[in-house]
Amino acid sequence: MWAKYSVVALTAASPIGEELISIPLGVGLGLDPALVAVVSVVFNMLPAVVISALFRRAERGTGMLRLILRMRPEPIGSAIRWMLRRRSQRLLRALNRWGVWGVLVVTPWAGVYVTTLTLEVAGMRRSRLLSSVAASLIIHGAIVTLASVGVFSLV
Fold first, then answer.
1. Which one of 67, 68, 83, 85 has the fewest CB atoms closer than 10 angstroms to its CB?
2. What is the DSSP letter of 151?
């Protein structure tokens, strides 16, 4: 049984699976839908936390990312520096204004990886970013769970 939950967790944390695949997969495997939803939300949130932590370290210039940023010919360091310079104040104001609602609309279509990366590049406050992504994942997790158990159809 725990092996099945592990499959759900890894699917939720992967950029291809996320909640839209992991929840129906878990329900299809005969697991408890409520527990599947919780596991999917938690493991789908992990990439957002990791990406946000990496950006924080890059901004402070600490650890391994500091070394990457110092390597001028390195394409990864150049890409990170380029993203950190592209913050638009207008976009930042819009993101901080719309917060949860904007993220709620974007996250299921773009995925948690792209959404978090985009919001980090834009410079959205981390507390707002992580709470918005978490709220979005909880709401969408509930919707997908209800659809997976047959309460309503998404088609």
1. 85
2. S
If DSSP codes are grouped into helix, strand and coil, which group holds residue 105? helix
pTM above 0.90, yes or no: no
Burial-class residue 154 by CB neighbours within 10 Å (0-12, 13-18, 19+): exposed
Distance in angstroms (rounded) separating the CA atoms of residues 26 and 149: 11
Residue 124 main-chain phi, psi, to 5 deg: -65, 140
Q: What are the tens digits of pLDDT across the range 95-151?
A: 667 666 777 777 777 888 888 887 777 777 788 888 888 988 999 999 999 999 988
Between the alpha carbon of residue 60 and those of residues 13, 19, 116, the distances in Å are 26, 32, 18
Contact 108, 143 (CB under 8 A): no
Crossing angle for the helix pair 112-122 and 33-60, to the nearest 10 degrees: 30
Q: Please, what is the angle between helix 18-28 and helix 33-60, to 10°?
A: 150
47 contacts 13 by C-beta, under 8 angstroms: yes
